């Protein structure tokens, strides 16, 4: 094999979907984790997906195995940053028999659902806190 040439594997009928998002919440990771732990909310945020919890990492976040419209994994990692939390969202999945335009549309839909989830948590958990005011410290 010549330098620079690599074997290639082509998967027929499978397309990869990778979605990454970040949102800052002015609350401690433990509060975000507690709000995310409510399983009934998962169906609200991702109604077409079946989620099997793989790893509950407490204030560090959650990982799921995903089936339904997609097959793969999803993760919310909660990173303590300054006086709050950066909610990192990762979705790595396969979409069967998706044309390029369908894959682009699926990625957009999944990015919007990630932001919808993050902004719902942000609105709920930061409610009543004036802009610019430091969040309350966990006791």
Q: Could you explain how this protein is built, in words?
A:
The protein has 139 residues and is of the alpha+beta class. It has one domain: Alpha-D-Glucose-1,6-Bisphosphate, Chain A, domain 4 (2-Layer Sandwich). 29% of the residues lie in helices and 37% in strands. The protein is built from three helices and five strands; from the N terminus they run βααββββα. It has helices at 29-36, 39-45, 100-125; strands spanning 14-25, 49-56, 61-68, 71-81, 84-96. Strands 1-5-4-3-2 form a five-stranded antiparallel beta sheet, covered by helices on one side. A hairpin with a 2-residue loop joins strand 4 (71-81) and strand 5. The chain is elongated. The termini are far apart.
């Amino acid at each position: 094999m010549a330098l620079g040439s690599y074997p290639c594997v082509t998967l027929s009928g499978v397309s990869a979907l990778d979605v990454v998002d970040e949102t800052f919440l002015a609350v401690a990771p433990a509060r975000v984790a507690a709000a995310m732990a409510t399983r009934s909310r998962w169906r609200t945020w991702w109604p077409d997906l079946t989620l099997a919890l793989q790893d509950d990492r407490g204030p560090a976040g959650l990982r799921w195995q995903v089936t339904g419209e997609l097959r793969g994994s999803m993760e919310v990692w909660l990173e303590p940053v300054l006086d709050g939390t950066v909610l990192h969202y990762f979705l790595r999945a396969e979409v069967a028999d998706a044309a390029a335009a369908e894959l682009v549309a699926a990625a957009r839909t999944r990015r919007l659902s990630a932001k919808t989830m993050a902004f719902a948590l942000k609105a709920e958990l930061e409610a009543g806190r004036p802009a610019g005011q430091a969040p309350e410290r966990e006791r």
